[in-house]
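User: Could you write out the 3D structure of this protein bound to 6-AZA uridine 5'-monophosphate? I've included everything you need below.
Assistant: Certainly. Input first, then the structure.
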Amino acid sequence: PAKQRIALEDKKIVHPVGKRLVELALKKQSNLIASADLITTEEIIDFANKVGEHIVALKLHSDIIQDFSDNLIVELKKIAREKEFLLFEDRKFGDIGNTQELQFKKSIYKISDWADLVTVHPIGGLESLKVFENTGVITIVEMSSKGTLTDDYYFTKAINVSEESGNVLGAVAQRQIPDNLLLFTPGVNISSTGDSKGQQYNTPELVFKNYHTDFMIVGRGIYKAVDVKTAAKEYQTLGWISYLQSLND
Ligand code: UP6
């Protein structure tokens, strides 16, 4: 028989950032993380203002922003505080600990100064994860793209590393993971099944029901919509209903 999923409030998450994320989800009735894969400060600020009330975290790729500056972060922090969401840098670190530490703390992005959450490929092994200090680490244990190399063997080892490391609060995957980690699932879209560059999409219903995901990550489904705010609200509602439904399966 299929294993029943654990409700967010019953997950034993000890990392303070993980706890905060769960608290925000329950308060806002949202499992939605919006991916702001936009390349200018103006677009990102506008997007954050529009979707802020519907999301628990805003995911960024800082290194695609053409006019990145400290001012963007100051503005985003302000919006995040007002609208209550976390800032999530999807850096996908994947190097030895020393290099990751330099990338995390020293680049022009100063990720360590502002990111509540960062993604890391655990490919460098357990000790490489130690450099992220109090920032919440989310490991990439399986990717959403066609032909990804994250097979069962890698997945199992990556989960083991994530469970052993004290600062990993969750993982990105397209399947169920142990209950002591929060599951984040990208590759979610209600009007497309994929793109021409290998991305594969599932619906919110599927990822909550089959993967028992805790948080869905939506990029183009929201930021490419004609009405971004309405799209965010739609995904929020559909995600939350799908989550509640999955508790009864
Ligand atoms: N992302 C994936 N799949 C992964 C890991 N990360 O799509 O396995 C990220 C992408 C992008 C977002 O880097 O920022 O999630 C998905 O965007 P999309 O909804 O526009 O495809």
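The mean pLDDT is 97.
User: Perfect, thank you.
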